[in-house]
Amino acid sequence: MYWTGNALVLTALALFWLAWGAQGLEGMLLGYYPDTDQDGVVDTNACPGYISQENAGALFVYFLGTGHKVYVEEDGVLSGSFSPDGSRIAYQKANQVWVCDVDGNNRQAVTACGTGDAVTWGSDYIYWSELTSAVYQVKEDGSERGVLHDFGQTVYKAGVSQDGTHVSGFAMPGPWIIAWDSATNTTSNVACCNFGGGCRGTFSPDGSMVTRNRSNHNDWDIIAYSPGDPINGWPGIQHIDNINWEPCAGRTDGKATFNMHRFSTKSNDFVVLTGEGANSAYVYQLSTRQFHYICRGIALDFCPFSPFNSVPAPAFAPQQGTFADAIDVTITGTGTIRYTTDASDPTDMSLPYAGPVHLTATTTIKARCFSGDDQSSIASKTYTKAAAGAQLTAIQLAPATMDVAGGGRVHYTATALDQNGAEMQDVSFTWSVDGGGTIDTAGLLKAGMMEGGPYTVRVSSGGVHASATFSVQGTICLIEPQAAARYREGDTMHVRWEWTGADTYPGGVVVSFSNDGGLSLHDITGTNSIASGDAAWGDLTWVIGQGLPDGVSVQTQKGVVQIGRYAATGLAWNGTTSEPFTVLAKDAATIPSPPSKSSRAAIRAVRDALLVTIPYRGYLEIEVNDTRGRRVFCEAVRGAGTRRIEKRLAPGAWMVCVRIDGRCLTSALITAR
């Protein structure tokens, strides 16, 4: 056995089990998933079914105490990390390193970066890698930006210990795990540590251990770090065989496959990892040898405690911006609001809010709510007084350059600046693109399907211009099965697709079937993967039901087929999913009508009430909880229709759930003002 710094771990082989619903765990999971509508519907066209290369998505914090996801960013995020005290998040988006509170408040850009693929918030610095040979560091306030270490070869998914003395990553070409120790300034012997796809070896927070995935992704190791020695010679601490049943993928035919292993940046006792084929986030605990299934999504970090306050942060109106002569700022919140205008953090002795704050100069207002013994996080807004005769002199356009998958979408952001570099509000922009897709009046680009580029996006206002470039990468177009197609079990289905790239598809694909609209996927490829030179490329013949695990039914009105990328380096495209089709029993005499497109309850807040539209008949419960999972309201209802719940909610964030027989049918995070 050994001491990790947080727990006593037995290294002898022991029986372990899967802890459903993260029983016994507390804290928060950080992850991402392209569920941009925040309604729980998986956008499988934008997210990989297999995690060989990740696709940017929506960043969320999952609170184990409530079982809900709080979305921090809607799209474009690949990496993230909790701050040392768990109250903040660092992440990369649109070529910037960002930080914000765990509830999404107080968001600010820290520094520019390249194509970010990993970030660690350490005790003194925020560290990140960006598909180059270097690992970078910066203070939270944007100062002291520099290179922590340069490996001399491309490294991605870098993991850094909390004190910045140990750095590991996935070296290319290779792939190999590579590690560096600052005390001895030694790099492990790369030539002796090729594990055929070690898949993101990351350091524990104290730098004593490294994760290592096996090439088949069925099992993995935790090994002790020995600076300067070849990784193959490092002593093993735990060898972990994956569970035999992964619930989201529905596997019953052997070990589940996992990827994206990463030590929690907050504890030596936890590793986050993601189930392949279904994008399901797990936490593995070393001291108990337990797998804990958390939620759907790709796991980025785990914090074994939750600093999130039950008192919501105050809200400002208007939002921060530029004003001409003077501005009155209104602050709303729960309990007593206290604020400052001198950039200091408000305490219980700060000035109490009694009415609109009148500003005549550039000012940063910080406010916090106090209610009983609880207090909220600090909300901060800056109001800038424009210089006399402010004139538009520059436009900042982001992202500056990027690759887009065919049919993909990119939301461009334009920022107007005056002659003093201050942001200007209420500026109208005109958008255009010279090919490769279309762009609307809000800067949303929809790429075409054919490979090409670079193309130029232009934005202008009042004679001031800015531009950015993008290239369209090839994608897979799925031709069959078609929408609303009807089959019977045992029929022959042709899965047909085309690659729109100019060259031969650089890798292989896997084809999967789902009987629940894409939530669980089952491989029907037959052998490993299908490469562009294989006979089955572009036209896979499948006898419906053949090759599926025992217990998986093909009879469904929500059947879909997904083509997912198995191996192809550097592609923006990850996968594509068919429209739903129906599969009936072999002897079915009739084919029923397709199900209704809308079977979810709709939840929204209007003024002092809550409106819930229910398409179901029978008895249901409408439940409201605070962000710690404490019930504040529950009402039983019966029958379909729209219910107006006359329950005034205090300003802040609330979890609303519609339940039937104790099962949550629809949930939503709403904001009351």
Would you mind describing this structure in some detail?
- The chain is built from no helices and 59 strands.
- It is globular, with a radius of gyration of 26 Å.
- The strands form 14 sheets. A seven-stranded antiparallel β-sheet has the order 9-8-7-6-5-4-24, with no helix packed on it.
- It folds into five domains: 2-303, 6 Propeller (Neuraminidase); 315-376; 392-473, Immunoglobulin-like; 476-584, Sandwich (Immunoglobulin-like); 602-672, Immunoglobulin-like (Sandwich), CATH 2.60.40.3080.
- 0% of the residues lie in helices and 50% in strands.
- By secondary structure, it is mainly β.
Brief overview, please?
This protein is an all-beta fold and 673 residues long.
| Spatial separation of the terminal alpha carbons | 53 Å
Number of domains: 5
**CATH domain class name of the largest domain:** Mainly Beta
CATH architecture annotation of the largest domain:
6 Propeller
- Biggest β-sheet strands, sense, barrel: 7 strands, antiparallel
Helix content: under 10%
* Lateral arrangement of strands in the main beta sheet: 9-8-7-6-5-4-24
Write the layout of secondary structure elements.
Elements: E1 2-3, E2 8-9, E3 18-19, E4 28-33, E5 57-63, E6 68-82, E7 88-93, E8 96-101, E9 108-112, E10 118-121, E11 126-129, E12 132-138, E13 146-160, E14 166-172, E15 176-181, E16 186-187, E17 209-213, E18 219-224, E19 236-241, E20 258-263, E21 270-275, E22 280-285, E23 290-296, E24 298-303, E25 315-317, E26 321-323, E27 327-332, E28 336-340, E29 351-352, E30 357-359, E31 363-371, E32 374-375, E33 379-385, E34 392-398, E35 401-405, E36 409-411, E37 413-418, E38 430-433, E39 437-439, E40 444-447, E41 452-461, E42 464-473, E43 476-480, E44 486-488, E45 492-499, E46 508-514, E47 522-523, E48 530-531, E49 539-543, E50 556-567, E51 575-577, E52 581-584, E53 602-606, E54 609-614, E55 619-625, E56 631-638, E57 641-645, E58 652-660, E59 663-672
Parallel strand pairs: 3-23, 26-33, 35-42, 44-52
Antiparallel strand pairs: 1-2, 4-5, 4-24, 5-6, 6-7, 7-8, 8-9, 10-11, 11-12, 12-13, 13-14, 14-15, 15-16, 17-18, 18-19, 20-21, 21-22, 22-23, 25-27, 27-30, 28-29, 28-31, 31-32, 31-33, 34-37, 36-40, 38-41, 39-40, 41-42, 43-45, 45-49, 46-47, 46-48, 46-50, 50-51, 50-52, 53-54, 54-57, 55-56, 55-58, ...
